Fold this sequence. Notes:
This protein starts with a helix and ends in a 17-residue tail after the last helix. It is rod-shaped. The protein has about 220 residues and is α+β, with helices and mostly antiparallel strands. Helices cover about 55% and strands about 20% of the residues. The chain is built from five helices and five strands; from the N terminus they run H-H-H-E-E-H-E-E-E-H. Strands 2-1-5-4-3 form a five-stranded antiparallel beta sheet, with helices on both faces.
Amino acid sequence: MKLAKKLTLIFLAVGVIPPLAVGLFSLYQASHQITEQTFNQLQAVRGVKKAQVESFFAERQADIEVLSKVVSVLYDRLGGATEVQKTLSAPSSDGGENHGYFQEYIHAYDYYDLFLISPQGDIFYTVAEEADLNTNLVSGPYRDSGLGNLFKQVRESRGFAMEDFAPYSPSNDEPAAFIAQPIIKNNQLVMIVALQLSIDKINGFMQIREGMGKTGESYLIGP
Length: 223
């Protein structure tokens, strides 16, 4: 190859390769920065959603703790779980008044249903009066449901417990989660109060898409 051609190729290489290398490096840096920025944004969204979910369930626990105190007072005033059951099922002024209070409670705090359950697993009161009313969570058709699992947890632990969202047959197989709190008298379990949560409120804040662009969506994934 003639010297002139060699020099031309060398000059071309010197003139083209460095800018090309700089361009490729800049492209890599920009791509890396975009990826890092995207992950940082996702982590920020995750942090916000996590705080919202934790706050939601902390509020639900506070709700049922207050509710259980109200039911405990009702238990003491009426003289036992059997009398509570009779009063709530009777068309008397007391029964109507207490039933009305429970109806207003679940409406005000956005719950789907409220349950009073005996230590033996009998669901003797619900606000919604669906198919689970007067069934038994130990031997009845809903013993393996979310509510049935929750009842067993609370009866064993004697403390607050929660059961994750799953289809619930008495509510048309809609996703339902449950929380429950025991009522203890003289170191004896006398009743369990449970609340059925609708998925609507969680859907409400999960579907807020700020910070996720036009196509971003957020999901809650169970264990």
